[in-house]
């Protein structure tokens, strides 16, 4: 009898992979225009397929993150996009991922399509900050587009301060869409705003009744934030995903780098094993700057041996009234039941 596990993979550093490994120039570090390019949209498709093959071989779930990190009003304007064209390209990105999910629906039990949102400004520092109300209004364009495109969830990546993240949560809550918040941190494990992970997570949870499905850390090497997680406090259990950088370098050093730093893959795998022990709810694994499919494969191999489930391929745990039950024959097209695998009730040790 084949077994599945409760690991969910996602992709690595899309933009750095495209720039350094595929020699594709990305103006303003934006990948979303490629979904409209008749040549490069196939490059994107093959990029995701490489990761889906890893999930298929490893019997894990997978989150397809849309290449829309820069597809907001400010960055869109710099790239010549009107509001209407931005809405259309966000929807198109989701439609292309939905087609990929259909292709792999018989091979991978749980595939989720996520609409990705990036910060309004720089992903490495706080320039001009917004109140949560301003952030909610600003990011509503993408959130509403994702809602209309029928995403499974929205993921806000590389958040540098809590107010912008809170605004995105408020917008997704209004539209009744599940949301994941991912913070980036500096060498000291703090957000670029100076907030600690604890402060940012507790603030948002207190303001929203724990509306986010979970939190993540991205665009930082594990050595930058492991010390922040060496605590028994309950807040860290809300961190259920990691998308780490390959490099140990600071954001400033990476910003000035002319060559790709792929880091030490073996060390990255070992560090993720340590993170798995420090974060009992950790289930979602991917990569960020400098990582490619080989890094995610190494991470998966390092952590999956002790994470196998005892359930068959046709079964999935579903929380009903705070009780975990086994549900079989999930609809592979809608994945609505499967989305529950991402909730805080399910992301627990079996």
UniProtKB/TrEMBL annotation:
Boundaries of every Hcy-binding domain copy: 1-303
Transmembrane annotation, as ranges: none
Superkingdom assignment: Bacteria
Keyword annotations of the record: Metal-binding, Methyltransferase, Transferase, Zinc
Classification via PROSITE patterns: HCY (PS50970)
One matching Pfam family: S-methyl_trans
Keyword field contains Methyltransferase: yes
Keyword Isomerase: no
Chain sites annotated for binding Zn(2+): 219, 288-289
Gene3D superfamilies for the chain: Homocysteine-binding-like domain
Cofactor(s) for this UniProt protein: Zn(2+)
A single BP term in Gene Ontology: methylation
Gene Ontology terms, MF aspect: metal ion binding; methyltransferase activity
Official protein name in the record: Homocysteine S-methyltransferase
Organism: Flagellimonas hymeniacidonis
């Amino acid at each position: 009898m084949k077994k599945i596990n409760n690991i969910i993979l996602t992709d690595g550093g899309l933009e750095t992979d495209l720039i350094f490994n595929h020699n594709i120039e990305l103006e303003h570090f934006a990948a979303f225009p490629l979904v409209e390019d008749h040549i490069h949209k196939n490059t994107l498709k093959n990029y995701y397929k490489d990761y889906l093959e890893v999930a298929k071989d490893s019997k894990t779930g997978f989150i397809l993150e849309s290449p829309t990190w820069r597809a907001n009003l400010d960055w869109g304007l710099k790239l010549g996009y009107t509001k209407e064209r931005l809405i259309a390209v966000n929807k198109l990105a989701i439609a292309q991922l939905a087609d990929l999910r259909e292709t792999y629906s018989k091979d991978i039990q749980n595939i989720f399509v996520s609409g990705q949102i990036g910060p309004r400004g720089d992903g490495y520092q706080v320039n001009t900050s917004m109140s949560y109300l301003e952030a909610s209004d600003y990011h509503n364009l993408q959130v509403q587009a994702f809602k209309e495109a029928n995403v499974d969830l929205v993921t806000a990546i590389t958040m540098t301060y809590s107010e912008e993240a809170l605004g995105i949560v408020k917008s997704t809550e209004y539209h009744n869409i599940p949301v994941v918040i991912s913070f980036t941190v500096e060498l000291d494990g703090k957000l670029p705003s100076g907030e600690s992970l604890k402060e940012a997570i507790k603030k948002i949870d207190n303001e929203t009744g724990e509306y986010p499905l979970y939190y993540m850390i991205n665009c930082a090497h594990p050595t930058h934030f492991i010390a922040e997680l060496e605590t028994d406090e309950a807040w860290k259990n809300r961190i259920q995903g990691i998308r780490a950088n390959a490099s140990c370098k600071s954001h400033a050093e990476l910003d000035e780098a002319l060559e790709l730093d792929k880091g030490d893959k073996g060390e990255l795998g070992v560090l993720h094993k340590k993170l798995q022990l420090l974060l009992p709810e950790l289930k979602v694994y991917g990569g960020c700057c400098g990582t490619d499919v080989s890094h995610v494969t190494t991470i998966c191999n390092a952590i999956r041996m002790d994470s196998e489930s005892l359930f068959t391929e046709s079964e999935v745990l579903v929380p009903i009234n705070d009780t975990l039950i086994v549900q079989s024959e999930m609809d592979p097209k809608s994945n609505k039941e499967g989305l529950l695998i991402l909730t805080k009730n399910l992301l627990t040790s079996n």
